[in-house]
User: Fold DUF1491 family protein from Sphingomonas caseinilyticus.
Amino acid sequence: MAERLPAHLEAAGFIRQAEAEGGFGTIIKRGDADRGALILLIASRGQHQACLERALGPDGIYGWQRSGPPVGADSQSLADWSEKRLRFDEDSWLIELDIPDPQRLIVEMGAKG
Assistant:
């Protein structure tokens, strides 16, 4: 199985990256500091672009996949989905990133789906 950084370090890195690119990042919900799943709500100028979730693949390697509401979803849809998802896994981290070029981040992360 592939090793990964503790969740709290990765979460902090996403926030720093968003801010370095002129955007904004915040942790909406803190999960398990070491092994919590990471869920990213990605927006651009307040407009929802994607939900990305890191998942362990059948090959034992972590990868990013799209999940959640579609592009342009309203805040209530995002809140409902997030609440349901966090009930499923209380150790998850929910991180919101509002960045100038969300598609570049999505492509760089190799998100599937």
Summary: The longest helix spans residues 7-20. The first strand starts at residue 24 and ends at 29. Residues 1 and 59 are 8 Å apart (CA to CA).
